[in-house]
Amino acid sequence: MCLHTPPRPTADAAARRAARVSTACHEQGWSLLCNGVLVFEDTGELLPNGRIVTPHRPLALTVGSAA
C-alpha cells in the first residue's frame, strides 16, 4: 500500500507503527497509517486483515482508585 521511499514497515511487521500517518481524526482518537493500520490513542490497533491488537499501554490510576 505504501509508496514511500524507503518503504515503510508493512502491516504485518513488528514495527508497523513506524509507518506515516495518512489520515487522522484526533477528535475521535484514531489515525490511519500508510500501511493500512488503524491506530487508536489508547494504543490499540486494527490491522487491514481485520485482526485486533489490544491496547498495550498501562492504564493510569485515577484519583480515588484502589492500587
Description:
The protein is mainly beta. The chain is 0% helix and 24% strand. The protein has no helices and five strands. The chain has strands spanning 21-25, 30-33, 38-40, 45-46, 52-53. Strands 1-2-3-4-5 form a five-stranded antiparallel beta sheet, with no helix packed on it. The model has no long low-confidence stretch (mean pLDDT 86).
Quick tags:
single chain; 67 residues; mainly beta; five-stranded antiparallel β-sheet; 0% helix; globular
Largest sheet: 5 strands, antiparallel
Percent in helix: under 10%
Contiguous low-pLDDT stretches (5 residues minimum) are none
So how many helices?
0
Average pLDDT level: 86
- Summing up helix and strand content along with how strands pair, one would put the structural category as mainly beta
* Residues in β-strands, percent: 15-25%
The strand count comes to: 5
Strand order of the largest sheet: 1-2-3-4-5
Q: Radius of gyration in whole Å, from Cα? A: 14 Å
Order of helices and strands: EEEEE
Instruction: Give the termini distance in whole angstroms.
Output: 44 Å
Q: What's the shape?
A: globular
